[in-house]
Prior knowledge:
alpha+beta
Amino acid sequence: xxxKILSLMIVVCAAVAGGALYYLQVYAxxxxxxxxxxxxxxxxxxSGEPEVIAYDGFDGIDADSSPIRYRACFTTPTPLAELSxxxxxxxxxxxxxxxxxxxxxxxxxxGAKLENGSALAFMGEENIQYGIDRIVAxxxxxxxxVWHQINHCGEVVFDGQPAPEDCPEPPDRx
Length: 174
């Protein structure tokens, strides 16, 4: 009888721990990002400085636990052709998965749009935090998405290597 009780306790503890781990990964650390009017910025082709673009319907989430947990969705009235003339493209954009409950950000569908050319990725802001770029993607219909992605400087430095020559000096603590 003691063996059955111990086995049951182990199973119950494992189920509780698994449920807690799931909750912590998917829900606990995320917070809603309040729109400020300057949430969607793209780096201008000429000046190299981020500029706010016209947008509406902003919905975003972020977490202090990781700099790459930022995700946002919006719409813009600005035509994609106009955006592509005025702002820097971003090569190698790979949208990161968002929690399932944040329904407006579907990384798989967005990745397919980027691959088939019905959406374009732009540099939102380089090194928004050392080694992390903010990427903005916009589809032909005006739907837009924002996420953070590790840049080539971050990949090297976060791996414990010295910063490449074309990268800014990393801070003492990143």
